[in-house]
User: Which sequence fits this backbone?
């Protein structure tokens, strides 16, 4: 089953065409990694999946992004957009927990937006922290400000914040690029734990990372989808010359 | 070679000494203000007890024993300020939020400078507008006995402080990092939930600062309030009653009471009370910002009972409405003055005959000349002290106790109401230094008032000169003297110019301090640029005088409108110049405009 069915997706920023006709299925409850050099359209693609593209006034989209039977690009009303975002959570490149809130309140944020009652919220907060592999480290200081955490912990806090709302999809846009190797490894472990529970789209420019955690991998270049396949297959037996070249250069001989 | 190096090192030492002396002067100014207020203020206690002054309800300084009760004025000040802030704070916050987050870029680009421009409309012009429109409106339609009332004063002050609050709050909201907004949107927050749960909490400190700035201005606002509040010496029981806030009381009585009389000392006491209120607002705001900076334990974000999407639409509508109301009020006032002013402006009104002692029929050029002279001399003094102080603070001050004292002094000076500067100048320059009512005394008073404006803008300008240029000069062996002369001053010039024009603008628009130090009822036809020890006429003063005492005279309104238009043209063009310079400066140091 595909969580997202993307068909001939074009995105324009003013005159510039950022995505040039992407067609791709994102399989349900698997980890799909998206690779490609900077400026290839990875982030723009993610912005289409969570409709953050609609926050950019000069961006224009064409094509179909099908999710749960709807072409979400046709969503115009605020109701439809926010409802979609509550099912498709995002973890951004730079850890961005709210520094004026406590650790607990950060995780509870999305649940409170939904108007859930506080008893239920408490259970969900602990559950989300557990899933994000952060609970052991913060259990005795949930009321501390989020800014007191290390960079890696902050990013796992963001993962917990995203997971708390029990999303169908978790989008991760280069979530480890600001982190050191140990913190990176922890995030990867967390993501692998979630395999089979939630659909994950993981953007990265680090190829070994894409190889380690991916079930499926898509390679973007200059706004085009060059190749998409099962991860092992794509890395070991690339069909397209451009993919082979990119993998060779990045992985080294 | 050695000789030259020694000479340059010596010049640098001399320069730093002079900068330090200049910086010390601002401390002297603060000490002086408190000293003279207290010195004269406590003398009132010879005639009445503290309780009689603070809680007494009658003011009759000429009776025996004198009655110096200030309670009606204290309550009036609090009442007017409360109404003004209650109106202006929510409108400003919604306006600022809309402009910072929702408005299309072109609208923001136009409105940001427009708001800053409107901050340059003189308070006496707001007073004139109030007296000719809102006062009759309140009389005929709201049932206020005379029309002059707490309510009208509150509304006028609210309109006055709107641009200040909006401008500060907008900057604060704009500087909230995008990533927090994206995080909230990504969680499915509505636009309004983003505002409520991210933008406002993250910008809380700046929003509080904007609120404080507006409240301080409301507390100290003098001329407009003196014109529209009615001046009644009673405790206002309803918003439709006339009243007399402390600042207006000082203004109305200072020119009437003889120096050294019991009432004269009581005015300084009133000044002290006003300063106490100002200090209280500053302390409370600092305390609040300190406390709000720390995350609270389990702060609840309530989802609200209303459908969030509906709430979002409602609030966006409300924000647009706030913007429209604010714009309508400000455009209305400016338009009113322009339309009436253009009708009233004529060659004769500007350059016709001067008749001494007749503010209505005498032409405006002595007033314009006086205003220009006050602007010129006050700015010269403010720059002579302010720019070196700024340079000292930006590049030569360590973290010493002296530096902290200078900073605190500048912050304090920025919060002192203009009428208190008037009292200070009236004591130090007019009486003690025997300048009498004169251009010089007025200019020195205005210069003290404008010191914080100049220091802050200039310091900002010096600080934003990129370090690499300074290092480049130091790297080739330039002395600090040459760094200042060849790098800092040229690079910071547009920023400093912006500060200078703002200071000139304030010197032109403030009537309260010069009424106590520089102008006389009756017009003097001597050239104020030359005869600096003579009193002078001034535009803001002329408008105040006509609006206060001469509106019954035919043609009086015409002359007031003409004077208001000339004054607005002066201040708006200066403000425009300041904004242009600021933008130029921001581009030069490569900052986001």
Assistant:
């Amino acid at each position: 089953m595909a969580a997202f069915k993307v068909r001939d997706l074009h995105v324009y920023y003013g005159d510039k065409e950022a995505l040039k006709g992407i067609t791709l299925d994102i399989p349900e409850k698997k980890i799909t990694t998206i690779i490609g050099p900077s400026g290839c359209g990875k982030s723009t693609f993610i912005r289409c999946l969570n409709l953050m593209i609609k926050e950019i006034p000069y961006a224009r989209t064409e094509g179909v992004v099908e999710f749960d039977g709807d072409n979400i690009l046709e969503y115009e009303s605020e109701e439809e957009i926010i409802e979609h975002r509550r099912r498709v959570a995002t973890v951004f490149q730079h850890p961005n927990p709210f520094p004026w809130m406590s650790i607990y309140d950060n995780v509870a944020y999305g649940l409170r937006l939904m108007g859930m009652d506080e008893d239920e919220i408490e259970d969900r907060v602990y559950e989300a922290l557990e899933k994000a592999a952060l609970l052991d480290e913060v259990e005795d200081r949930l009321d501390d400000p989020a800014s007191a955490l290390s960079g890696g912990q902050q990013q796992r806090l963001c993962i917990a914040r995203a997971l708390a709302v029990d999303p169908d999809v978790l989008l991760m846009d280069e979530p480890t690029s600001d982190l050191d190797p140990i913190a990176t490894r922890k995030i990867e472990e967390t993501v692998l734990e979630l395999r089979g529970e939630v659909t994950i789209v993981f953007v990265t420019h680090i190829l070994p990372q894409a190889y380690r955690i991916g079930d499926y991998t898509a390679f973007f270049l200059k706004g085009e989808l060059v190749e998409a396949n099962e991860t092992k297959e794509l890395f070991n037996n690339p069909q397209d010359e451009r993919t082979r070249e990119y993998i060779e250069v990045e992985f080294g001989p | 070679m050695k000789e030259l190096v020694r000479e340059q090192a010596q010049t640098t030492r001399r320069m730093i000494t002079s900068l330090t002396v200049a910086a010390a002067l601002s401390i002297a100014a603060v000490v002086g203000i408190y000293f003279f207020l207290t010195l004269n203020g406590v003398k009132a206690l010879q005639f009445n007890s503290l309780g009689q002054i603070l809680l007494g309800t009658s003011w009759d300084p000429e009776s025996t024993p004198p009655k110096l009760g200030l309670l009606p004025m204290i309550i009036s000040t609090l009442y007017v300020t409360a109404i003004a802030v209650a109106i202006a704070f929510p409108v400003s916050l919604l306006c600022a939020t809309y402009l910072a987050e929702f408005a299309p870029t072109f609208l923001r680009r136009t409105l940001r400078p427009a708001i800053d421009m409107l901050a340059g409309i003189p308070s006496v012009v707001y007073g004139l507008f109030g007296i000719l429109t809102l006062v009759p409106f309140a009389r005929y339609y709201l049932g206020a006995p005379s029309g002059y009332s707490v309510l009208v004063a509150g509304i006028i002050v609210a309109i006055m402080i709107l641009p200040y609050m909006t401008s500060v709050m907008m900057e604060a909201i704009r500087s909230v990092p995008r990533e927090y907004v994206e995080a909230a949107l990504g969680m499915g927050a509505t636009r309004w939930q983003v505002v409520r749960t991210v933008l406002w909490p993250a910008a809380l400190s700046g929003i509080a600062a904007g609120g404080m700035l507006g409240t301080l201005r409301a507390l100290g606002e003098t001329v407009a309030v003196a014109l529209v509040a009615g001046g009644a010496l009673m405790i206002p029981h309803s918003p439709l009653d006339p009243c007399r806030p402390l600042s207006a009381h000082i203004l109305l009585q200072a020119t009437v009471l003889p120096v050294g009389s019991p009432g004269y000392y009581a005015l300084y006491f009133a000044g002290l009370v006003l300063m106490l209120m100002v200090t209280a607002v500053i302390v409370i705001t600092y305390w609040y910002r300190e406390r709000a900076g720390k995350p609270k334990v389990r702060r609840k974000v309530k989802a609200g009972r209303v459908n969030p999407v509906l709430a979002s639409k409602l609030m966006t509508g409300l924000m647009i409405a706030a913007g429209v109301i604010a714009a309508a009020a400000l455009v209305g006032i400016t338009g009113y003055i322009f339309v009436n002013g253009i009708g009233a402006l004529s060659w004769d009104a500007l350059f016709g005959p001067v008749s001494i002692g007749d503010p209505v029929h005498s032409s405006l050029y002595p007033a314009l000349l006086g205003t220009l002279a006050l602007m010129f001399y006050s700015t010269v003094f403010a720059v002579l002290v302010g720019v070196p102080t700024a340079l000292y603070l930006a590049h030569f001050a360590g973290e010493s106790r002296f530096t902290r004292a200078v900073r605190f002094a500048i912050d304090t000076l920025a919060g002192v109401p203009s009428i208190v500067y008037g009292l200070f100048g009236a004591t130090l320059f007019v009486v003690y230094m025997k300048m009498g009512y004169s251009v010089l005394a007025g200019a020195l008073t205005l210069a003290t008032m404008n010191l914080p404006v100049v220091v802050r803008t200039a310091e900002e300008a010096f600080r934003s000169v990129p370090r690499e240029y300074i290092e480049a000069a130091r790297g080739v062996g330039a002395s600090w003297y040459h760094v200042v002369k060849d790098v800092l001053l040229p690079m910071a010039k547009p920023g400093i110019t912006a500060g200078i024009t703002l200071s000139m603008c304030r010197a032109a628009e403030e009537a309260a301090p010069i009424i106590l130090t520089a102008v006389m009822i009756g017009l003097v036809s001597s050239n104020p640029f030359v005869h600096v020890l003579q009193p002078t006429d001034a535009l803001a003063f002329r408008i105040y005088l006509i609006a206060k005492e001469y509106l019954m005279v035919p043609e009086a309104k015409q002359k007031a409108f003409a004077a208001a238009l000339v004054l607005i043209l002066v201040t708006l063009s200066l403000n425009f110049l300041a904004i242009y310079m600021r933008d130029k400066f921001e581009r030069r140091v490569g900052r986001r405009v």
Notes: The radius of gyration of chain A is 18 Å. Residues 118-131 of chain A form the longest helix (14 residues). Residues 20 and 73 of chain A are 16 Å apart (CA to CA). The domain at 2-251 of chain A is CATH 3.40.50.300 (Rossmann fold).
